[in-house]
C-alpha cells in the first residue's frame, strides 16, 4: 500500500516535470512574436522595452511613407494574383493525383512537389538565371510565377486531404448519369471541397505574402515586396517601423491559423495529429 | 473510372504540370548548365575546381553541416516534451495547445528574426535585465554569432519536429502503457523502454527533415549570424549579387541540391524498405 502511494507520487512528479518543460517550450515559441506588439505601440523616439509612452507613431509612419506603402501594395498584389493562379492549377491537379492511376504518375508528382524538397535558395537562383536570360528579372510577373510554383505543392497537399474524404461513389453516380468532366468537376467535386479550397487560398496568399528568398532574387528596386523591404531593413540597422510591420504580419498569421483550424473537417480535428496534417503536413522549405 | 485515365488525368494536371515544367524544371536545368558553361569560356569545370580550392567554400560547407546537425538535435530536444505533452491531452485541449505550435509555424521568419534582434541584442531585453540584476553594465553577446543562429533555427524548426513526433506518439497502442503500469514500471522506465523506442520512426523522420531543411537556410544566418556563420545559401547569394560570379553560384547550388537529394533519397529508400518489411 505504502509502495503504491510512493509510485503515485513519482508519476505525478514525472508528469509535472513534463508539463513544465512543455510550457517552457510553448513560451519560447510564442513569446518572441508577442514581444513585438507592445514595441510597435511605443511613443516617438522611445526604443525601450516595455515602452515608457504609447502612441500610434510607428503605424502612422508605416502607412504614410511610400518606402513602406509601395512594398505593401506590391506584396498584396503578388500574393493575390499568385493565390488565384495557384488555386486554378492546384485544385484540379490534386484531384487527378488522388483519383487517377496513370503511367508516370510518380514522376509527375515528384516534379510538382519538388519545390518543397529543393532548397528555396537553389530554386531562387535557378529562377534568377532563367528570368535574366528572358530579360524578365525584376518584373512583377516573374515574382508571381516564382511564388505560384513555390506554393502549389502546399495547396495540393491541403486539397488532396479534402478529396480523400469525399465519397468516390458520388462522382461515379454523376458520371453514370451523363455528367461530362467539366460538369463533374465544377458541380460535383468543387462544391464538396469548399473548406479545403478556402484554406488553400488562405495558405497560398499567406505563404506568398511572407516569402522572402525568391522575391529577394527576382525583385528590383521598383518591384520590392514587403518581406524584401523588411529583410534589408533588418540587415542595415533596424528601423523601429519594423515593429509595426511585424505586428501586422503576426496578426495576419494568427487570423489564417484560426481560420484554418476552424475549416478542418470535424474528424480531423478530433484526431489531433491528423488535424495537423491538413494545415501543416507540407514541409515548409527553409528560408 | 473511365476508359482512358491517362488522358483524363492530363486534363486536370495540365496547368500545374506546365507551370512546374516551365518555372521549376527549366530553372534547375539552367543552374546545372550555368555551373559548367559560360558564354566566354564554353564548357569548363573551372567553377567546381575553384570551389574545391576555396577555403571560404570549405569553411561554409563545414559550417552548414555543423549548424544543421546542431539545429536538428536541439530542436528535437525542445520538441519532444511538447509532442509528449500534446499526445497526452484530450482532443479538445490538444486542439487548443496545437495553436501554440501552429501560430509560430505560420509566423513570418522576418518577424521572428526581428524579435530576436530586439531580445538578444546589445541593448536587448535579456542584456538589459541582466544589467539591472547585476547593477552594472552586462553584455552577453548573443546576436550575430552562433548563439543567435541556433536560437533562430530552433525556434523555426520545433514545429517541424512536433508534427511527425506527435503522429508517432499517438500511434502507440495505449494498452501497452496499461500493461507496463500493471507490471509496476516506473515513469522513467516507461519513457526509456516504451515511449522513446516506439516513437523512433517519428524521431528519425523529424531529425532527417529538419537537417535537410537547415542545409538550405538563408535568412536566419544572414540576419542573426556573424561572419563565422556563413552557410552555403549565403554564399550563393554572395556570388550572385556581390561578385556576379554566376558560374560559382550555380556550382554551389548544384552541390547543395546534391546534398539534399542524397540525404532525402537515402531516407526514402530506408523508409520504403521498412514499410515493405511491415507489409504496409
Give a description of the structure.
The complex is a heterodimer of chains A (287) and B (280). Chain A has helices at residues 2-40, 57-64, 66-99, 105-117, 120-133, 140-164, 168-176, 181-210, 213-218, 226-235, 241-263, 266-271, 273-280. Chain A has 287 residues and is mostly helical. Chain A has a single domain (67-280), classed as MetI-like fold (Orthogonal Bundle). Chain A is globular and about 70 Å long. Chain B has 280 residues and is mostly helical. Chain B has one domain: MetI-like fold (Orthogonal Bundle). Chain B contains 13 helices and two strands, in the order αββαααααααααααα. Chain B has helices at residues 5-36, 46-53, 55-88, 91-106, 109-120, 125-134, 146-170, 174-182, 187-198, 200-215, 219-224, 232-242, 246-278, and strands spanning 37-38, 42-43. A two-stranded antiparallel sheet of chain B has the order 1-2. The longest helix of chain B has 34 residues, at 55-88. The radius of gyration of chain B is 24 Å and the shape is globular. The model of chain B has no long low-confidence stretch (mean pLDDT 92).
Task: Set out the fold topology.
The complex is a heterodimer of chains A (287) and B (280).
Chain A: H1 2-40, H2 57-64, H3 66-99, H4 105-117, H5 120-133, H6 140-164, H7 168-176, H8 181-210, H9 213-218, H10 226-235, H11 241-263, H12 266-271, H13 273-280
Helix pairs in contact in A: 1-11, 2-11, 3-6, 3-8, 3-10, 4-6, 6-8, 7-8, 8-11
Chain B: H1 5-36, E1 37-38, E2 42-43, H2 46-53, H3 55-88, H4 91-106, H5 109-120, H6 125-134, H7 146-170, H8 174-182, H9 187-198, H10 200-215, H11 219-224, H12 232-242, H13 246-278
Antiparallel strand pairs in B: 1-2
Amino acid at each position: 500500500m505504502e509502495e503504491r502511494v510512493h509510485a503515485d507520487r513519482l508519476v505525478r512528479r514525472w508528469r509535472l516535470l513534463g508539463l513544465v518543460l512543455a510550457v517552457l517550450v510553448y513560451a519560447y515559441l510564442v513569446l518572441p512574436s508577442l514581444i513585438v506588439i507592445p514595441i510597435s505601440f511605443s511613443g516617438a523616439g522611445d526604443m525601450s522595452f516595455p515602452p515608457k509612452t504609447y502612441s500610434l507613431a510607428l503605424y502612422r509612419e508605416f502607412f504614410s511613407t511610400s518606402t513602406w506603402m509601395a512594398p505593401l501594395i506590391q506584396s498584396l498584389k503578388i500574393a493575390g494574383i499568385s493565390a488565384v493562379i495557384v488555386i486554378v492549377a492546384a485544385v484540379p491537379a490534386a484531384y487527378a493525383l488522388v483519383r487517377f492511376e496513370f503511367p508516370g504518375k510518380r514522376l509527375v508528382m515528384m516534379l510538382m512537389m519538388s519545390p518543397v524538397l529543393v532548397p528555396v535558395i537553389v530554386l531562387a537562383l535557378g529562377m534568377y538565371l532563367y528570368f535574366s536570360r528572358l530579360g524578365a528579372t525584376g518584373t512583377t510577373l516573374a515574382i508571381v510565377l516564382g511564388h505560384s510554383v513555390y506554393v502549389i505543392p502546399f495547396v495540393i497537399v491541403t486539397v488532396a486531404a479534402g478529396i480523400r474524404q469525399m465519397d468516390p461513389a458520388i462522382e461515379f453516380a454523376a458520371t453514370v448519369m451523363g455528367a461530362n468532366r467539366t460538369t463533374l468537376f465544377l458541380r460535383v467535386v468543387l462544391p464538396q471541397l469548399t473548406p479545403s479550397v478556402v484554406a488553400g487560398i488562405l495558405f497560398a496568399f499567406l505563404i506568398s505574402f511572407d516569402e522572402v528568398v525568391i522575391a529577394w532574387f527576382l525583385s528590383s528596386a521598383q518591384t520590392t515586396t514587403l518581406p524584401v523591404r523588411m529583410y534589408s531593413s533588418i540587415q542595415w540597422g533596424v528601423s523601429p517601423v519594423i515593429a509595426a510591420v511585424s505586428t501586422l504580419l503576426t496578426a495576419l498569421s494568427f487570423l489564417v491559423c484560426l481560420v484554418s483550424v476552424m475549416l478542418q473537417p470535424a474528424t480531423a480535428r478530433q484526431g489531433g495529429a491528423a488535424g495537423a496534417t491538413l494545415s501543416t503536413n507540407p514541409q515548409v522549405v527553409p528560408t | 473510372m473511365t476508359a482512358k485515365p491517362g488522358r483524363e488525368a492530363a486534363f486536370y494536371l495540365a496547368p500545374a504540370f506546365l507551370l512546374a515544367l516551365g518555372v521549376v524544371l527549366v530553372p534547375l536545368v539552367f543552374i546545372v548548365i550555368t555551373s559548367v558553361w559560360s558564354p566566354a569560356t564554353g564548357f569548363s569545370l573551372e567553377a567546381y575546381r575553384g570551389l574545391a580550392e576555396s577555403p571560404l567554400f570549405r569553411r561554409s560547407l563545414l559550417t552548414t553541416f555543423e549548424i544543421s546537425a546542431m539545429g536538428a538535435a536541439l530542436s528535437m530536444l525542445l520538441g519532444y516534451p511538447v509532442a509528449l505533452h500534446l499526445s497526452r491531452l484530450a482532443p479538445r485541449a490538444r486542439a487548443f495547445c496545437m495553436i501554440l505550435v501552429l501560430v509560430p509555424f505560420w509566423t513570418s521568419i522576418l518577424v521572428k528574426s526581428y524579435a530576436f534582434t530586439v531580445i538578444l541584442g546589445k541593448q536587448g531585453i535579456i542584456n538589459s535585465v541582466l544589467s539591472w540584476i547585476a547593477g552594472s553594465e552586462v553584455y552577453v553577446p548573443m546576436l550575430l554569432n552562433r548563439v543567435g543562429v541556433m536560437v533562430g533555427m530552433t525556434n523555426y524548426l520545433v514545429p517541424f519536429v512536433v508534427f511527425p513526433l506527435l503522429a508517432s506518439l499517438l500511434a502507440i497502442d495505449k494498452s501497452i502503457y496499461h500493461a507496463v503500469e500493471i507490471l509496476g514500471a516506473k515513469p522513467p522506465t516507461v519513457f526509456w523502454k516504451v515511449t522513446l523506442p516506439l516513437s523512433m520512426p517519428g524521431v528519425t523522420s523529424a531529425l532527417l527533415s529538419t537537417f535537410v531543411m537547415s542545409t538550405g537556410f538563408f535568412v536566419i544566418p544572414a540576419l542573426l549570424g556573424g561572419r563565422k556563420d556563413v552557410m552555403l545559401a549565403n554564399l550563393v547569394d554572395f556570388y550572385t549579387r556581390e561578385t556576379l560570379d554566376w558560374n560559382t553560384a550555380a556550382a554551389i547550388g548544384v552541390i547543395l541540391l546534391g546534398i539534399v537529394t542524397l540525404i532525402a533519397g537515402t531516407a526514402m529508400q530506408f523508409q520504403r524498405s521498412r514499410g515493405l518489411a511491415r507489409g504496409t
